[in-house]
Amino acid sequence: MLLRLFCYKLKEGLRNKSFLGWNLIFPFLLGTVFYAALGHLYSEELNEPINIVIEKMDSTENVQNMPSVYDMMNDVFSELEYDDGVKMFDIKNADEKEAKKLLSDDKIVAIIKPYDYQNIKMEIKKNGIKQSILTSIVTAFREGTDIKEYVKTTGLQGNNKDPYIQYFYNILAMISVMTSSGVMISVVKTQANYSPIGIRVESSPVNRVLQSLCSMLAMSFLQVVILILSIFYYVYILKVDFGCDIKYIFITSMFAAFMGCSLGYMVACVGNASENVKNAILIGFVTGGGFLAGLMKGDMYIVMEKKFPLVNRINPSSIITNSFYTLNMYGANEKYTHMIITMFAYSIVFIVIGMVFRGRRGYASI
Fold first, then answer.
1. Angle between helical axes of 165-188 and 208-232 (0-180°, round to 10)
2. In angstroms, rounded to a whole number, what is the distance separating the alpha carbons of residues 167 and 70?
């Protein structure tokens, strides 16, 4: 019975034009548009000199070795070159007031303030390719790494330097969250107070909680397949380089899809609001959460992290987005593992809440 219901829900999902349009056609079209518009910007900007100011501090009190840090940074940074021999940095001499004006007028990318080896501060106006490259080099310098060898070994692109790749990560995050709407509608249709089909389903001898879970799993399976197709299209057709092993893209997408589906399951099972009301609430929650997570305005996640960090901890869109961002920036390290566990834990919580409410629901006619 459960297997038949699972197969039935798969067929239902495949016949749902709205579900397929938003979750299959949408990522293909949007990914193609992003690739056409942004695919070559990074390579075109890569070998341009990075304009910076290494500020010489006026006060050297209690910082005896500061001048040597300043001189060494100037020497090392002025010698760095791209593969084609172009100087990597154009270092300007300016005091603090002039440097801030240059940064404000976009004449320079960053102001570096070398107090000492362990306290090198960098002031930037916005995020971008050059800022990412500079951040990694300054970090390596602070840690005492041989900068020339570091640049030669890692290259400028590394695994995470292209900021435009984040747009493709955001597509995967968005469709993972958006699938919650399809799951919600699918699970709602198995409930007797919403449709005649729900009456027939709940009249069967199969446990109603198992029925609803079967519906969620069917839609989750379908969503994972859609994500796999999308990733294959990006990687092998558009030739998008995600900067990491493709298996981690699949793993992250799978957990993200499971979290989105479990969110839809919870909303479907909690409360007695109409299907349209639940769908409206879920869409508002998903779009609002997507905005706060930076899926519509890139700096919003950072703004929320500074002012309301709790929102980023409980917003499913932020959690999924941060998982892809962590993979993009840091690779499959301990922090990435923590994000995967967080997504799985939230998914289980959503499912348990949904199961509790679904199991308690009763009907006078049944």
1. 150
2. 37
* Domain ranges across the chain: 2-39+161-360, 48-154
pLDDT digits over 274-330, tens only? 878 888 888 888 888 888 888 776 667 777 877 888 888 888 888 998 888 788 767
| DSSP summary character for residue 126 | S
Beta partners for residue 197, in sequence order? none
Q: Are 111 and 136 in contact (CB under 8 A)?
A: no
* Residues found in the chain: 366
CATH architecture classification, 48-154: 3-Layer(aba) Sandwich (3.40)
CA distance 236 to 272: 45
Cα–Cα distance, 226 to 212 (Å, whole number): 21
Instruction: Name the pTM for this structure.
Output: 0.68
Rounded Cα–Cα distance for residues 30 and 188 (Å)? 29
Residue bearing tokens 């390290």: 333
Residue 153: strand pairing partners: none
Query: Is-contact 193 363, C-beta < 8 A?
Result: yes
Question: How far, rounded to the nearest angstrom, does the alpha carbon of residue 159 sit from its chain's CA centroid?
Answer: 15
Report the Cα 260 to chain-centroid distance in Å.
14
